[in-house]
Fold this sequence. Notes:
alpha/beta, Rossmann fold, 13% strand
Amino acid sequence: MGVELVSGPDDGAMHAGDGKLSLGWIGTGRMGSAMVLRLLRAGEDVAVYNRTRAKTEPLVAEGAKAVDSPAELATRDIVFICVAASDDLLAVLGGEGGLLSGGAVPDIVVDCSTVSTEASVEARARCDEHGAQFLASPVSGNPKAVRAGRMTVAVSGPRTAFDRAQPYLAMLGQAVTYVGDGDVARLVKLCHNLFLGMTIQSLAEVLVLAEKAGVARSDFLDFLNSSVMGSAFSKYKTPALVNLDFKPTFTTTLLRKDFDLGLNAARSLQVPMPVAGLVYHLVQAGVGNGFADSDFAAMIELVARGAGMELVSEDKAVSDGLSDET
């Protein structure tokens, strides 16, 4: 398996519209809408489908064409998919009104969802059967990161399909990494999200320890973010952790789903993951204690309860590291 970083934010890929390929997009929720908007503002021809049609209306106002079923996107050159779960991916491909249900099929299907490897393999097989090339292209980021041009993409599948789709993928964020054939990009994304969960748990623990000793969360994070241990992630989560604003960018339930998938992969590959296994149970506790639909940064509340503390918002303006770029 080869891993290759093939694009960055300054490679001129935003001019790919010169190729005149038509694009389709299935799934215009928070994440999908932000990505479609980048394509539209780059001058691309994009038709969109969403189960709840009202969610496509802001994109239509930006120049997208809305359709009534995935099947109506089958004549597009490249169709992107961004849905919530494995069953959703298979549903929009097959069945009545599915993307592959008619006589025509797109040249390339690019799936940006986070789904199981098994679902990805099945989706690839269905596309192969109908003559469409399939790219597994899970993304890392959230809507604000997309708007700031900071999203990243891991891609696996036929190299010829990747080379054709790459300029459009590069419009979506700062880097596109080709990681090999087949569906290995799914495992790359699951590894990423396992690390995400372990990182938020560790960050929550040290924040609560510092606060119980009398240090404001904002002060600790200012120190951390300025140190070698600071990261784009710790900076981005700073406002949520300081002001206890858990409006979801990625819910605790979705994090639990990815832990389920990632730990299943670890078992099948015989890889021990004791830290991830422990964090899984803490994430499950977060879901069970009322934070299922909150941003996963709410894990800090569970840590505080364990320390006998009640957190309060510091109500302080702090940078998330992205606002100046949005």
